[in-house]
From TrEMBL:
GO terms for biological process: cellular response to oxidative stress. Signal peptide: none annotated. GO terms for molecular function: oxidoreductase activity. It comes from Lachancea dasiensis. Transmembrane segments: none annotated. It comes from the Eukaryota. This is LADA_0H01420g1_1. PANTHER family: FATTY ACID REPRESSION MUTANT PROTEIN 2-RELATED.
Length: 195
């Protein structure tokens, strides 16, 4: 396809769940670069009524290990402990995506007719930020996967990482890829045009 959208579509297509990681960054990439990417994406991701309730923090080093160790210890079933253990020991860091529900409540008070829709709207916007970040990090040579151990993660976040009324939505765990992701299959799913 020759269009200005091609590089964007290629970036979307090359984003994958990469679980085989080691706790390093690619050559020439620093934590500051990851921070700049996340910061920019949080700023540029649209939100309902421009409410700008997306929040994120990046965990590396001890704070990353502490969170995933906590998740590992909290999970009751042996079978499900493997993932937090690999997050703790094989990934470099975690982007924790949150939503400021003080803002969600303000929206609900301002626009009561949409009150029940706002939790979905803010989750959509958080999801958009999550997937943009996932794609952008893979463009700079990182691998990542998305996790949802939000309640356990909340309990172990460092002091000052989360404010009153914020809710953790997802965790993007990242590091240096050590193997290609598994083959992916796609269904036939045509988008029809009606005129
Ligand atoms: C909204 C959403 C939630 C997901 N939750 C998880 C999760 O909790 N744990 C996990 O390992 N992968 C999770 N994934 C990853 C999907 O399983 C994965 O994106 C899908 O199988 C397609 O594979 P790909 O990411 O390699 O394209 C999630 C993906 C999305 C979009």
């Amino acid at each position: 396809m020759s269009s200005k959208a091609a590089p964007f579509l290629e970036a979307l297509a090359s984003r994958r769940s990469v679980y085989a990681l080691k706790p390093e960054l690619p050559a020439g990439i620093a934590t500051k670069d990851v921070q700049n990417i996340v910061q920019q994406i949080i700023k540029d991701t649209p939100t309902c009524f421009n409410s700008q309730g997306n929040r994120a923090v990046i965990l590396t080093g001890e704070s990353h290990k502490k969170v995933w160790d906590h998740v590992y210890n909290k999970i009751p079933l042996e079978n499900f402990k493997k993932r937090p253990l690999s997050c703790r020991d094989e990934a470099f860091g975690t982007v924790v995506f949150m939503v400021d529900n003080v803002k969600t409540k303000e929206l609900q008070d301002m626009f009561p007719a949409w009150s029940s829709a706002f939790p979905d709207f803010v989750a959509h916007s958080s999801g958009a930020a999550q997937i943009s970040t996932w794609s952008a990090l893979e463009l700079v040579g990182l691998g990542g996967h998305l996790q949802h151990f939000s309640d356990f993660v909340s309990e172990a976040l460092p002091q000052g990482a989360i404010e009153e009324g914020w809710k953790v939505h997802a965790q993007l765990v990242f590091g240096l890829p050590t193997a290609a992701p598994a083959e992916k299959t796609y269904i036939e799913n045509d988008v029809k045009v009606f005129e």
